[in-house]
């Protein structure tokens, strides 16, 4: 038991993938080039465990574990988070948003810090700006038909991983001196209200659905 388990180890000597837990365990991948100067800042397995992605301070890379086939290899040095879509069709990387430094774009705005890559061919299909680390992560439906991003106080609904444009936008205006309010709505327009509850003295809420995420199944709301 555990002889075929593949796991990642990150330490002062670098990053490694190992197979097995016993004395016969083997190393199937290593990245030990200057671990102190270029420490591994993020790594992530795909949902099916077939692909491994990491950032070693010099590049962001993804490859198939079984064959070693490289899928993505780009000069993203500051990647802090890596996310795979539910069906592993796309990989999303997040770098901390920075407004300082040289502006190379024509409009002199900061460079996009969220990149979306196609697993099929490794191409970068779109880049967008995600200013807050707490809310950068898109939320997907289980079949990847819809992805939702929180941008400021707006919810942007995208078809699949087409983050270059949104299909629907939901805006909830701020109201002063009002309690926090959690709403559960249907996903299709006109986004009919299913249930709502007010929470006093709460700054944010965490919603935890069951694994299927269907409206008839329960959701746990935790306020902080």
Structure summarized in a few sentences:
With 224 residues, this protein is mainly β. It is 0% helix and 43% strand.
Question: What is the tally of beta strands?
Answer: 19
Stretches where pLDDT is under 50 for at least 5 consecutive residues are: none
Beta-strand portion reads: 35-45%
Please state the average pLDDT score: 88
The structural class is mainly beta
Shape: globular
Task: Tell me the strand order in the biggest sheet.
Answer: 4-5-6-7
Q: Give helix % range.
A: under 10%
**What separation lies between the terminal Cα atoms?**
41 Å
Number of helices: 0
Order of helices and strands: EEEEEEEEEEEEEEEEEEE
Cα-atom Rg, whole angstroms? Answer: 20 Å
- Sheet with the most strands, sense and barrel status: 4 strands, antiparallel
Organism: Angiostrongylus cantonensis (Rat lungworm)
Protein name: Eukaryotic translation initiation factor 2A
Keywords: Initiation factor, Protein biosynthesis, Repeat, WD repeat
GO molecular function, one term: translation initiation factor activity
Overview of the structural elements:
- The protein has no helices and 19 strands.
- It is mainly beta and 224 residues long.
- It is 0% helix and 43% strand.
- A four-stranded antiparallel β-sheet has the order 4-5-6-7, with no helix packed on it.
- The protein has a domain at 177-224.
- The model has no long low-confidence stretch (mean pLDDT 88).
- The chain starts with 5 loop residues before the first strand and ends with a strand.
């Amino acid at each position: 038991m555990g002889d075929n388990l593949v796991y990642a180890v990150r330490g002062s000597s670098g990053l490694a993938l190992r197979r097995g837990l016993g004395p016969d365990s083997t190393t199937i991948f290593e990245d030990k080039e200057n671990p102190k100067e270029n420490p591994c800042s993020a790594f992530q397995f795909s949902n099916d465990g077939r692909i491994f992605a990491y950032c070693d301070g010099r590049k962001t890379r993804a490859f198939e574990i079984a064959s070693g086939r490289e899928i993505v290899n780009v000069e993203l040095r500051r990647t802090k988070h890596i996310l795979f879509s539910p069906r592993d069709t796309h990989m999303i990387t997040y770098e901390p948003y920075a407004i300082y430094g040289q502006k190379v774009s024509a409009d002199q705005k900061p460079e996009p810090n969220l990149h979306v890559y196609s697993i099929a061919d490794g191409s970068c299909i779109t880049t967008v700006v995600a200013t807050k680390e707490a809310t950068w992560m898109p939320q997907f439906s289980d079949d990847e038909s819809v992805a939702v991003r929180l941008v400021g106080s707006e919810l942007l609904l995208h078809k699949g991983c087409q983050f270059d444009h949104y299909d629907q936008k939901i805006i909830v205006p701020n109201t002063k001196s009002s309690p926090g309010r959690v709403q559960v709505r249907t996903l299709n327009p006109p986004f009919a209200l299913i249930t709502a509850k007010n929470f006093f003295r709460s700054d944010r809420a965490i919603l935890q659905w069951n694994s299927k995420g269907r409206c008839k199944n329960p959701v746990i709301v935790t306020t902080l």
